[in-house]
Amino acid sequence: MFDESYDVVVVGAGHAGCEAAHASARMGRTTALYTMNADLIAQMSCNPAVGGIAKGHLVREIDALGGLMGLVADEAGIQFRLLNTGRGPAVWSPRAQEDKAQYRTAMRRVLERTPNLFIKQAEVTEILVDGVLVSGIELLDGRRVSAKAVILTTGTFLNGLIHIGEKQFTSGRSGEPASISLGNCIRGMGFEWGRLKTGTPPRLDRRTIDFSKFEEQEGDAEPTSFSFRTIGKRENRIQCYITRTDEGIHNIIRRNMARSPLYSGQIQGIGPRYCPSIEDKVVRFANKDHHQIILEPEGIDTHEIYVNGLSTSLPIDVQREILGNIKGLESAQMIRPGYAIEYDFVQPTGMHRSLETKKISGLFLAGQINGTTGYEEAAAQGIMAGINSALQITGGSPLLLDRADAYIGIMIDDLVTKGTSEPYRMFTSRAEFRLNLRIDNADRRLTPIGRRIGLVSDEHWSQFQERLARLNDMRSRLACPREDPENPYYVSRGVTLHRHPTLATLLRRPEIRLEELIQEGLVDGTNLRREDLLSIESEIKYEGYMKLQERDIARMRKAESRRIPPNLDYSSMPGLSHEMVEKLTRIRPESIAQASRIPGVTPASVSIVLFHIEMLRSRVRSESAV
Amino acid sequence: MREGLEKVVPTDDTIVAIATPHGRSGIGVVRVSGGQSESIANRLFRTQTSLAHRHSIPGHWMDANGNVIDEVVATLFKAPQTYTGEDILEISAHGNPLILDRIVGTILQLGARRATAGEFTLRAVVNGKMDLIQAEAVRSFIDAQTDEQARTALLQIEGALSKKMRPAKEKLVDIIARMEAGIDFAEDDVPPPNAAEIAEDIRQVDDALKELQESYSYGKLLSEGLQMAIVGKPNVGKSSLFNRFVGRDRAIVTNVPGTTRDVVSESASLDGVPLTFFDTAGLRETEEVVERIGVERTVETLSTADLVLFVLDGSAAMDDLDRNIQARIEKTPHITIINKCDLTQFTAAVVPGETSPIRVSAKTGEGFKDLQNAIRRFLGIRPEGVSTAIMTNARQFESISGASRALDKGRTSLLEGAPQEMVLLDAYEALSHLNELTGEVVAEDILGRIFSTFCIGK
Prior knowledge:
heterodimer, A: alpha+beta, FAD/NAD(P)-binding domain, Elongation Factor Tu (Ef-tu), domain 3, Arc Repressor Mutant, subunit A, globular, B: alpha/beta, Gyrase A, domain 2, Four Helix Bundle (Hemerythrin (Met), subunit A), Rossmann fold, seven-stranded mixed sheet, six-stranded mixed sheet, 13 helices
């Protein structure tokens, strides 16, 4: 009946699919990774960059768990910047411009060398279900593949519809076919589904741009890599170029607004508010007389340039007219036009926190199909879906990161608890325990977890152990009292040393920096890496604040530990309004904490639910005592 | 932002509430449950005997500065053999709402939290104290929950408070949005928030909250009223004064000393503040039984009054009895009144230790305006009136105070150069206090604010 058989089948080889397939294969499950085009594995569909604020945190977390994105982005990175260094280290976040072709190559190389992982080029047309259990997939050529778990990472391909001006056509991504059969199959499975929209700007030919009209944006002198495992300094090989639009350009856009499918009513899907198209910006921020544009090279071996800030679905002739009026782009040649794309997504409230659908056991969803946007968000869900499918097959309980564990935990909790009405992107402001979720402690938060589930390799683990040893060494050195108050370093900073404070105490002051203490010879910093210094210094500087957060974290975890039985009947619960019953039944929260986060659920209803589950518990207790 | 956490009632701290119905009654009970119950008693309960499980011990309840609040009977119930399964302390005091509130206040100061509706029952369940489904308990819990909700909703719909607070809260959300935008969209073309400007805006929010805070004492009076005792030696005209206030003959007025033998109470209002007057028996040494009981009650009333009206007979010089009474009320807020200024033999007695006694005639009404103004001054009613928002309950006051403290802290650290992701902790703390008062704002609203304010996105 089946032509082939795997433990796990992953449908789609984008950023979510690659991480998912790698994780389940690394954890010992035979895994098939299906893509419609094996040459486009890990394609970056939009901008040529990985990371950014909050997204850089996600990449670090994926890496700490044993995932791939950080390593590959380091290898294919061509310009590195650490963002937000004007603020405290909790919100520092790495970002890198990537060589898109090299990114694909590097990712494919890692995947090909992963045991148990098989890359397959074929179009998946159907998900096979046996009752409420997933059983496999069917391919366009008629073959049937059995699987114990299926992970869907379909990106923008499900019933993808591209819009450029008045023109529209089905497509999964520029130049690639959409997944129509699979899309219709999923629509028919009874999930709550909807349409989202995203967009991308035109790409230009480098030779036709006058760069003298732009301001250059350089990489950092000291590049920061994503992965804790990347040894050796990364190199900046390109620059980006900054300019801005003006009122003349805005007028062109206004004049042609009726031709934008976004405003003509042609597009039904909802786009992200934080990644608006240029026509959106002009309409919604009418009094802003300029918008920033950054030219980003798509790679080293190509002349293709990405025009960051100019995402649009306006017709090609209007795109040309806009470009022709930007200084330096007057004679720019377009390699590809910008476009908007609409695609199907499944409302993520239909999933458990393991990313398994509530309806069909063994079916996992990750990435844009869950209503998210961004490579990093996709990859982070991918690795979790991969891990949890592998754990499910071996009968293990799922890995559920909570909101104090990781940004990954926050994202998944937000998705399954609140659902989404626009493409969901990670922000640091979504993290209530932001000071604890830093890039410098991602490994200490997550690598032991990755090791426990079998995703962190021996080599990765020993690197982590070495780093812990370096940190401990340094901490004990800093715990010693210093007795040289006359040192010019202290004197020049007006620091008076009473009662011989330890160096650690001194470091709590914002003006005292560990790097400088080492430079001044006040403490021995041999063997320490840059990220080690950052870890130690952040811990010390945030210590007081983190203690305050710990009380809230303990409260949250206590509320998480109050589990709600999955089949609790809310409708028979006295005191709950109809609306509350509806909300609670739709989400079926796993814990009191999750119930409290459902939008619109009132404190009184949370208390009533708590009262009820405790009543149930005490009844069970007393019955078992009899 | 503490996602949703403010909706979850914690079950491991110490809670306190007034257990008897609101209003004046013979006895009022304050109940404390949780691990801190015993240590709270050890701090604030002064007694000859030591507390023991299920023993009712008489003594005095003190405030943090060691002043006696009331004579009380305290009973400690040690876990687990208690209603909630935790240590419980029950304090029986006089049934004056102001006293009970002060007792609760001292307990809150030691780190306990005001209990929410039905919370004692919830704890009983959480701690496995109800081994059967007790329909009654369930129903009372649900009722408490829904009642509280209805009450809160009503307050929010009707109360000028939330209206008054909205601009302050909006402004706080705006401040948070600006700081968050600066952090999350540093890559974008977002103007970096200026620390001095943010600090100034925080100060403005704080000022608005402080104004609300100040309205609390008045708001509380508005809801609970002012308890006033009228005292003086027999036949100085206390009851005439009382009748003039309440506008009818409630107390029997004769010129026979000792006519009023019990405490008579009646309510009137001044600028909307309910005033409860307690006309007291004259304080004189007496052998007559009924009158003696009256005098004892007077002493009791004196100890619980917010304000004492001390009445002197202006037609005669102060005597020992007057001085005796004056000594008794010295420590209580009081207004000294010289009555009978209409009498021809009025001598305008000099009252030692009293700078501006009010001269009135209870009979003709002369000087009565002056007396009302003196009471207004005591109430702190400002001439511009009190049409603005008024905070009426202690829980609201605690939320606003908490918000204000957090804002103070945030502003200070901002000015000291703390990074804004740390200042935001204080700002969120303040916001969550305000959310306790007027419904909720979730993280999405802050992001929504950012997206509508700043053009974000590349």
